[in-house]
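Deviations from the work plan: none for this task. Representative record:
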Amino acid sequence: MPESVEQRTCRVVAEIFGLSADQVTRDTSHEQIEEWDSLNVLNILMAVEGEFGVSISPEEAAEFVSVEKIVTVLKSKGVE
Amino acid sequence: MTTQPLKPAEYLKAAREIEAVHGDTARTLAVISTFTAELLRPYLIVESHQLDCLVRPWFGPFGQLEQLVLDEASALWQQSPDVLWIAARLEDVDPRLVHDHPHIGPEATRQRLDAVAQRLVNLARAARDKHRASILVSNLTCSAAHQLNPFDANDPDGFVHLLAETNRQLARDLSTIPDANVFDYAATVASAGADEWSDPKLWYMARSGCSSDNMIPLARAVARATAAQLRPAAKCIVLDLDNTLWGGVLGDDGPEGIKLGDDYPGNVFKDFQAALLGLRHRGFLLAIASKNDEQTVLDMLDTHPEMLLARDQFAHIAANWDPKPVNLRRIAEALNIGLDSLVFVDDNPVERAAVRAELPMVHVVELPPDPLRYLAALRDVPLFDRPRDLQEDRQRADMYQNEAQRRQVEQQATSVEDFLRSLQMEAEVGQCDSTTLERIHQLIQKTNQFNLTTRRHNLEDVRRFAAADDARVAWLRLRDRYGDLGLVCVGIIEKLDERAWVVDTLLMSCRVMGRQVEDAFLSYLAGEARDAGAQTLCGVFRRTPKNTPVKDFYQTKGFKPVGGEEEQRFEAELTNDAFPWPDVICRVSKSTKESVGA
């Protein structure tokens, strides 16, 4: 079965923060990960654009505080 | 490389893995910038690792340049960087200038551009005074000039022309600062594509200097420039012939059948030869390793009208049926250089694999199957990057050529003494000054074989030795009937106590080994120590994997071993007749030379 949007997002977030795949879930957010700062929001933005081939606006990037929120933004852009 | 580029998250992951495994070998690259350079971190790590010259990047807080450089206690200098990249962009330091230009006119624009360049030069100079790090300074570019006014270049005072002049002045000024070089940011942007270089979103949101995609070419260019500061360039390009220097197989197709000339596909190979000739002019030796009949090859080189590379432009020709690794060993030996300074160019993947397997230290160029891509492959060889071609580098190819003639004479001479006399050697000795400092530093960094202590003193150390009353930094320059060999010996001696001076550094370029040049130089060093009041000269030998040729140097010169394991120590009395100047070398004084030159 191909990876779902949520699984792919979890994988990308895990790669950015050097975590293993099972350490990142839908609920993972900036509150648990200390390094989830403004610089890494940019890294998430670039990584998500590279992974899903979409363009993320600064306003949408401001929403990037958890895996769940990232998935919501992606789904709103029609990513399946 | 046709592999898919990594995605951003994969770069972050790969960088983390590289750091975990190889982090302790990394050299520190400090970056001070007028944009958010920190986003480059994973890219710099991955790209520098691919070049076998891993860096640990450190980023100064954005926008702080003078604060970090001028304060000796700043976080920058606490990193003790190996390389410092001063990364300022015109868009950041004078963002409105390009738009003001039509209004304020060329003179005022020039002044503002000069002010930017001067600021960068002052930063580099201050950094040089504070620390030994190699310095890279981004030059300036401004794609907006062309984008907003395609006829800007039509005006002799157009912005692009003024900017080019400023970049030239920047290069001139940096060339007066030891170990400070231009990082060609302008060319990096142009080659990646100026129009899409930056991403407005990342710029306005986060002051990122370039788009996500362009982090790769930027990091790659910086990693290459950094590697060129930290390691020596290659010395010799070893070339295959058939389907490399010309199309077709000489042995089968004959000189008239092979493809080389002014029409396709011969012109592809002719241009490739032209590029190789250019590298030779920059001081890289050329050699041949080809499975061919030697006479056929020599005839081809001597008589084919379309050959740009002639027989006497090759320092060594190995045309025979032996395996290539055998011939590469032969070439390294004949030229007296390390295998790790060879670059091997061969269209045949099997030969490349054989060399890779047997001689992993040789740099093998991954020549693509299509000859139309040969030039691009040459461009991608980082070992041709040399920040500055010194006079000695440019002449090197000729010097080795002369060496071949010397060897012929050697074979004719009846005794070594006769041979050495026939060379009519002239040596000039002297002490380090601003004109010799860079060459001395270069030899200290790269000499492996004839190097008694292999202490890689940095520029600052050398300057300190040179300025000290109780130390001498000495050199020897050699000339013979075949040409100028340049500055070939470096020695540093230092006062140990009231009675004795010690040889901290003694090294010689291996191309003058076996000519009693070391005796002449030792005689000079001993004389300097004696004149300074020493009665004893102490020698030190520190063993490395490469300096076995000189392991018995001090014993054979009459020194007595006085112990030491890691650092073997030796002593010799400085009587008046100790260490005579060898009579096969004529000693010329600097003043003589100057009077000749005047």
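The mean pLDDT of chain A is 93.
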